[in-house]
Amino acid sequence: MSRNLTIPPDIPPSTTGREDAVAVVALGANLGDREDTIRRAAERIARLPLVSDVRLSRLIESVAIKLDGPDPDAPVYVNAVALVTTRLAPEILLGMLHAIEAENGRERLERWGDRTLDLDLIAYDDETSDEPHLQLPHPRASERLFVLEPWLELDPDAVLPGRGRVADLVARLRAGGE
Questions:
Q1: Annotated catalytic residue: which of 39, 118, 126, 155?
Q2: What mean pLDDT value characterizes the chain?
Q3: Catalytic hit among 18, 33, 114, 115
Q4: Dihedral, CA atoms, 24, 30, 31, 37, nearest 10 degrees?
Q5: Exposure winner among 1, 40, 45, 54, fewest CB in 10 A?
Q6: Is 118 labeled as catalytic in the residue annotation?
Q7: Most trustworthy range by pLDDT among 6-20, 57-71, 76-90, 112-126
Q8: Smallest Cα–Cα separation from 52: which of 20, 80, 23, 81?
Q9: Lowest mean pLDDT: which of 6-15, 23-32, 54-63?
Q10: Contacts of 150 (CB under 8 A, 6+ apart)
Q11: pLDDT, tens digit (0-9, with 9 covering 90-100), for 156-178
């Protein structure tokens, strides 16, 4: 008994999916093996579904920022910025970043407290959002040299949506003694 097998034509690529976007993710840690944690977190982000590229800045140290300002007595942070090329929606990406924090022992006990890993979604292309669960761009990014300088290192033409060129923001903060 013979059977006829019909092979369907190749499926064309989907045209309804989300286009690639570049997300700016700030990474920070001031507890544990800070540098290793940052590097492993960047590698984990690179393995997320629908992520095609991750470019990590150099790692820098910065003083801890608490609710009442800089705290030189707190453990020092290691910070970096990653440019993440992805087709994940920003809400989904943020949820996955929170999951990576949890995988690294992040506990949200104190606002702006010490942490094993902090992953902040700073910007997602030129999208803006004022939703409580998704604020884009990140509301304090324009005030943080430890975010802006590594970002500028990766992209000298970077723009923080609604705030301006990152190079100009860095120059203003440096001039103000931040």
A1: 118
A2: 89
A3: 115
A4: 30
A5: 1
A6: yes
A7: 76-90
A8: 20
A9: 6-15
A10: 57, 58, 60, 79, 80, 81
A11: 999 999 999 999 999 999 998 76
Tally Cβ neighbours within 10 Å of residue 67: 9
**Residue for token pair 């990653």:** 82
Catalytic residue selected from 34, 44, 106, 144:
106
Amino acid identity of residue 65, one-letter, is I
In DSSP notation, the chain reads -----PPPPPPPPPSSSPPPEEEEEEEEE-SSSHHHHHHHHHHHHHTSTTEEEEEE---EEE-EEETTEEETTSPPEEEEEEEEEE-S-HHHHHHHHHHHHHHTT---SSTT---S-EEEEEEETT--EEETTEEES-TTGGG-HHHHHHHHHH-TT-EETTTEEHHHHHHHHHHTT-
